[in-house]
Write a structure and sequence with these properties.
Helix content: under 10%
Strand content: 25-35%
Order of helices and strands: EHEEEEEEEEEE
Structural class: mainly beta
Number of helices: 1
Number of strands: 11
Shape: globular
Number of domains: 1
Distance between the termini: 19 Å
């Protein structure tokens, strides 16, 4: 599966319904294992399976994007550090807005190409230094 913005997130952008303010809302990222199957129908954290975060698997175990910036339709942030990651092999990372409830925390992006087997140690995500950064619209 290639990286993708979740279609229902793009719909929110276009309709301005439940818009996400990257500079004000709590936007997090969490790893998903190879057993998670991306679906264009997934719209909330509750739709995710087999997540791995910092010390656990739940929504609150995702790491917050620090110092997010939006420039010319490009999202960037400071590198994200997960202090202790354990679990099955990882194959992607998912961005989501944390509303405090799994069923109302909208999914934003599925980012493929992250592949490693956690060993309980720290994992740092260095967001792309190229033109696309985290993602570009």
């Amino acid at each position: 599966m290639a990286s993708a913005l979740y279609p229902l997130f793009k719909q929110k952008l276009l309709s301005q319904v439940d818009a996400i303010a990257f500079d004000a809302d709590t936007v997090r990222c969490i790893f998903v294992t190879s057993t998670y199957v991306y679906s264009a129908l997934h719209d909330f954290f509750a739709d995710l399976t087999n997540t791995i975060g910092d010390g656990g698997t739940g929504r609150a175990n995702g790491e917050v994007l620090v110092s997010p910036t939006l420039t010319d339709g490009v999202l960037d942030a400071a590198d994200t550090v997960f202090a202790a990651v354990t679990g099955a092999a990882v194959n992607a990372i998912v961005l989501y807005k944390d509303s405090g409830v799994d069923a109302t925390s909208p999914l934003i992006a599925y980012i493929d190409g992250i592949s490693f087997t956690p060993n309980g140690g720290q994992v740092t995500i260095q967001w792309d230094a190229g033109a696309a950064k985290i993602f570009a619209l």
